[in-house]
Queue: 3 jobs
Job 1
Amino acid sequence: MRENPNYNEIYYQHTTSHSQVIDILTEQVIPLSELEGPMDWERFFGNTYPVEIEIGSGKGRFLLEASKRHPQVNYIGVERAQKYVEVTRERFEKHIRHFSVDRTSGTFSNVRLVRTDANYFLTRYVPETSVQAYHIYFPDPWPRKRQRKRRIFRNRDFLEALTRTLNSGDGRLYIVTDHAEYFQEIQERLAGLSVLRPMDASLRPDSDITTHYEAKYVLEGRAIYRAVYEKAAS
Ligand SMILES: C[S@@+](CC[C@H](N)C(=O)[O-])C[C@H]1O[C@@H](n2cnc3c(N)ncnc32)[C@H](O)[C@@H]1O
């Protein structure tokens, strides 16, 4: 397998100049540059609940359902595409209106959306051993040969940050994809990280919460591949 270059500062500057942190409930928007990394989750969320991060949260379907189901878990959706960030905000807004969610009830006070590149966020802002779970659902497979270097699981900085920031002992990584060849590559790359142990994928909690892509591909009858990893105790 060919290794690929790590992302560099120019790349970050190019892709992250409009990075923002969005509080879904209060609609407060803060430029990410105003926050200092590594972040203090307790200060950020105002509680000590565990933190779970969805990388490439897309249209926000998982983020909404999971954060509603687990009010005592803090969720961060990291999404770099502005259009999907907008779709996610609208999804929450519609839900709040439709179900007359009381904005003072605490519902959705556990969600933040971060519009930025996941590599940038993980390497600079996420503290060591501070994440209970990462959710990576339908990561872009970049199927064309010359584009495969863009695959997030090929990025060494990303893999280093992912394993460093997961909680030791019980931190989990959940992966779902429809792309058999990329799934194989992900498994091979993660097998090289001794700190991660593969688990029985059928044990993934909340597997009934489907993302936009999962719902679409299941309808099309595509095969879906799932993996769960746990970070070993240090
Ligand atoms: C194929 S979509 C899957 C979306 C969602 N997880 C789902 O299953 O419906 C991949 C998403 O990841 C986002 N994405 C890809 N690379 C990213 C990165 N480095 N940082 C943040 N978001 C990223 C894309 O913008 C896109 O929304």
Job 2
Amino acid sequence: MTDVGEVQGAAPPAPTTAGGTGRVDSARVGPLRVGIVGGGFMGRVHTNAARAAGAQVVAVASSSADSAARAAEALGIGTAHASVAELIADPGIDVVHVCTPNVTHAALAGAALAAGKHVVCEKPLATSSAEALALVEAASRAGLVAAVPFVYRFHPMVREARARIAEGSIGRVLSVRGSYLQDWLLDAGDIDWRVDSSAGGPSRAFADIGSHLVDLLEFVLGDTLARVSSVTSTVHESRGGSVVDTEDEAAVVFETRGGAIGTLFVSQVAPGRKNRLVLDVAGTAESVEFSQEEPETIWIGRRHGSEVVARDTEALRPDAARLSIVPAGHPLGYVDAFTAFVRDVYAAIDGSAPEGLPTFADGLRAVRVTEAVLASAHDRAWHSVA
Ligand SMILES: NC(=O)c1ccc[n+]([C@@H]2O[C@H](COP(=O)([O-])OP(=O)(O)OC[C@H]3O[C@@H](n4cnc5c(N)ncnc54)[C@H](O)[C@@H]3O)[C@@H](O)[C@H]2O)c1
């Protein structure tokens, strides 16, 4: 199926130095030196964000020496390593960004940590909670920064919604509706490595975009999902001549530990929807809604006098104002949010503690929810989230 041929086996490269090479400390002089693993869509996004955040992107590795060379040329990166093992062993790299298909994440991120590198690893952090937990423990033992790009946290208006909920202005949270809709896998002829569980993992739509939704929900609410009941649907039995073993859609009913109830709906077969991530929270006094496709506003619902609140740095809560880096009227979007995420990762590497940095622990949370959603869809029973 598709370009699964591009997904090379991700046997963990043997680290050359345990906990040593490339370790950054406060004595570092000059910009952080970044190595990118994976030369596809996210390899480009990470490269651009790393540069915008002031780092030097020094090397890239991908599924083969040839594909690394192509990526190096396309992205203007000086060194194309012949293998990921070679990049991870490179003493001239401080932080490794893992931008490869899902099943490779655990081995590659684990090897980078073992070699003493800080790591940014794409979501889903791993394709099982056991692997994700091992990564959380490895990062903690090594004392390295280990972050997952849950990038929607970095829209200023998400921080504004979060601050309003934390300060209680919407009242007690009663209910939440979250959805993330796309259409790029609508037709039976639409194929991608994510469709095949051997490259994408046992969950497709939920792990791919539901993980963003879960993270955003828990981040904005300051609450966690306790129990889920779900159904999934696979619309096309086969794609590109191969049997499909991952879901196109997932519908979830949930309860939070804080006592709210809600629903999540995730689909990659919703015509006309591109990246329609919407989070709609109802409290006892107000509602608040954020939509990723219109990230410069939030809607505040009231029984009387609902309003659309636009980003206005002077009027934002401090954490939202911090991320509001251009004057209102110059729209901020996904690319800016990604740069803000990477800037905060690098600030953490340099010893700061930026508010709301998504770490491997948050990556683990999303994997655990994904497992509970799949388990519930399988046996049609409620499942607790570990
Ligand atoms: N945070 C976000 O907003 C966001 C958005 C899109 C994708 N993602 C995640 O980013 C990851 C990559 O997605 P993408 O859209 O860039 O995919 P892609 O197919 O465009 O690129 C994947 C790249 O990895 C390379 N590759 C495959 N196997 C490899 C291996 N074993 N070692 C080294 N390189 C290997 C491929 O050659 C390709 O260059 C996925 O895990 C996806 O879930 C995150």
Job 3
Amino acid sequence: MKRFVVLLASLLAVPALASAASLSERGAAWAQACAACHGPDGQSQGAIPALDRLPPEDLRAAMQAFRTGERQGTVMNYIARGLSEADVEAVAAYFARAQAP
Ligand code: HEC
């Protein structure tokens, strides 16, 4: 639980950095935060779903569903509420680029 709180605190620190940054810098900053659970560049090796093969429109739809509560997760409902539309756009674009062959 303590680790989770520390992680959430570090997630909340990202937007401050991101507000001044370009879309790609913002995407990279968020992807770093996601990497704690989803693996580097979303390449999860564990139980948490990988993001590197998720089409950007599916990532966007999932984040929207977590935010509204339409989709119930364990942690993603909290995390999705911490990202603005622009943040989701940026991180989806980041993972889409990471997917490119
Ligand atoms: C604290 C660990 C953690 C962090 C950090 C985290 N996630 Fe997740 N994510 C999960 C878990 C666990 C799930 C499975 C759903 C649930 O239980 O909430 C998930 C599911 C998802 C899904 C659905 C995947 C699918 O195939 O349906 C998406 C999309 C997603 N996360 C995006 C992100 C993004 C983007 C970030 C960074 C902004 C992020 N996550 C950060 C733990 C995390």
